[in-house]
């Protein structure tokens, strides 16, 4: 995981005279030890890469995803040994974010839909699988093999469901889980209520107009009689 430390062990008796150790990353020399000349050192990124001149072990601190790759140590002592380490550094895994994919539009207010569409997302991830679960049952999933991409996965529900859903982001060493707040995210569009309010309001206006018309007519008749 990014930010961790990793140590590559050699299991070599460094006290043997004329021991030579080369550490390489993707065939590029990054550290070396010459016991005969009492020389040891790191050739790159000295703030994070350290070599133990007693054991020949290599340590990388504050790891990054760019540290992923093939490390090779070549040891020449009483025998020649070559050891290969295949390293994968995973990016920090964020907690998924769940949002409502569709909101109440003017059309949905007139004709409310019976589905609630959610979208689960994780941003800037690498080698991650994103999955929706109903309880412990897998519903759907999608994966990202590329580095630093955004990943999203939709889910369509019926309103007023009582099932327990969860969105899980996971890689080979860790997972992050988020449960949607269905009571907040899946509120039905209030189309029926709007229709009722409009109908009542329209009816009220008609009644008021009729009353005003009657009053005007009565006033006109009274004026005619007085004249």
UniProtKB/TrEMBL annotation:
Residues 96-183 form the Ig-like domain. It comes from the Eukaryota. The chain crosses the membrane at residues 196-217. Keywords: Membrane, Transmembrane, Transmembrane helix. This is Ig-like domain-containing protein.
